[in-house]
UniProtKB/TrEMBL annotation:
InterPro entries registered for this protein in UniProt: Cyanovirin-N (IPR011058), Cyanovirin-N_sf (IPR036673)
Protein name, entry field: Cyanovirin-N domain-containing protein
Pfam families hit by this protein: CVNH
Signal peptide: 1-23
Domain Cyanovirin-N: 79-180
Organism listed in the record: Selaginella moellendorffii
Length: 185
């Protein structure tokens, strides 16, 4: 019976995080700064008030916005509800891109935790997303930027072209008892 209780608690927390995401994207014309001296404009905004039904790639249709990959939220995600101070630690020469955040645990404590993004994200024809790994092999880590939970990175599309990919980690990462994990896909 102890094993059932142990499995049930994380699954219950995952279930609770299901009601936070959405896949609606609007245009945001504010500039964001990634802390490396370059600024980016027109980050797509995501409205988390509605639950997406399936994986889609969105484009607002004008030239100063980019596509954003949104993931289904029917299993897990929503780490930003219980984490703050979200940022990246990147070492491009070694192919390292760590998501770093201060996350709460059920007992009320908090701690700074990290998650290696290269272990759960893949490059899918120029767009980073779940169900893969080693996106750093074909994406330019020296140009990665973060705004809230969204990351932007240029990636090879497999046809010799570079695509600027924007994806929201809130759909793919969960806080489970104060640790960050990729959602199973």
């Amino acid at each position: 019976m102890a094993a059932v209780s142990f499995v049930f608690k994380p699954l219950f927390l995952v279930f609770l995080s299901l009601h936070v995401a959405s896949s609606l994207v609007t245009n945001n014309t504010q500039s964001e700064h990634n802390g490396t001296g370059s600024s980016h404009s027109a980050w797509p905004e995501i409205d988390y008030s509605q639950k997406p039904q399936f994986l889609e790639i969105f484009s607002t249709g004008d030239s100063n916005t980019e596509e954003i990959t949104a993931w289904p939220q029917d299993v897990c995600g929503g780490f930003s509800l219980s984490c703050s101070g979200i940022h990246l630690h990147v070492v491009p020469n070694y192919g390292i891109a760590m998501l770093v955040a201060t996350c709460s645990s059920p007992g009320g404590g908090t701690g700074t935790v990290q998650l290696e993004l290269n272990n759960g994200l893949g490059n899918h024809n120029g767009h980073i997303g779940p169900a893969g790994s080693d996106f750093a092999q074909s994406c330019d880590l020296s140009s990665i930027a973060i705004s809230g939970t969204r990351i932007r990175i240029p990636c090879d599309d497999g046809k010799g072209e570079t695509q600027s990919s924007v994806t929201d980690l809130n759909y793919a990462v969960m806080n489970d008892y104060g640790s960050l994990f990729f959602c199973p896909r």
